[in-house]
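Sequence, structure tokens reproduced for reference:
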Amino acid sequence: MPSSVSPKPARYIGRFAPTPSGYLHFGSLIAALASYLDARSVGGRWLLRMEDLDPPREMPGAQRAIVDTLQGYGFEWDGEMVRQSERHAAYSAAIERLLDEGLAYACTCSRKQLEGHHGLYPGFCRDAGHSLREAAIRLRVPDREYAFSDRVQGEFRQHLGREAGDFVIRRRDGLIAYQLAVVLDDAWQGVTDVVRGADLLDSTPRQLYLQELFGLSQPRYLHLPLIIQPDGHKLGKSYRSPPLQPHEASPLLLRALRALGQQPPAELDGALPREILAWASAHWDAGKIPHVHTLAEAQLR
């Protein structure tokens, strides 16, 4: 729920940005908890942003359920929740600028045409000069390597030309792509630290490139281990991951803390969610987060 008293401005600004394609699950809790504690432990601000850019995939009632779940688990955020669906004008203006500068182009390639290229765009439309009508828009990437130092995963490098290729910033159906929206929104909200799952680790170099193009500051990054189910699938809204239940708030918060390498004392067993969060904020140590990309769910019980 929004905190009743706005904290004094702090240098650290973090955020949690769920997608309303389903309910929050244990993996979501890991991300929310780590980003919350990383901010609160240094007196920073923690923002809530709903990444609702894909209406066809949005589950009816999911936005309300996400907010209710966060409140039930004791989370408080600063200011009002922002919805990406209210930011289309900013995304459109950014795309127009990239098109005007020759940094983006129309792409009419179908999925069938791109089969066999292993996710690396082969550049079929790069210099074709297609009309923007009924076309996706791709960003030209440089023949260059981008690198950053992740606070948990260490140094990560990716050559955009050889490993990513020109990527979509607006889909053929007009929907804005994640890579563009997240960069513009983090900068607009003044986010200094991004805490999220390791499945987005290889997206970061593309975001660094976009930050460079728009002259934006680069936040610090911390990519968390993903929670893997016994059958090898990661916890996610699209794969039978059970939603968080209100009556499980305290035990699941403690379990999430242990997954993050923290050591909550036995006295917190049975404590209220806000009491657990207060202890965790005072004792948060990001250096204890496991330096791996995945954690087996069975090991956390």
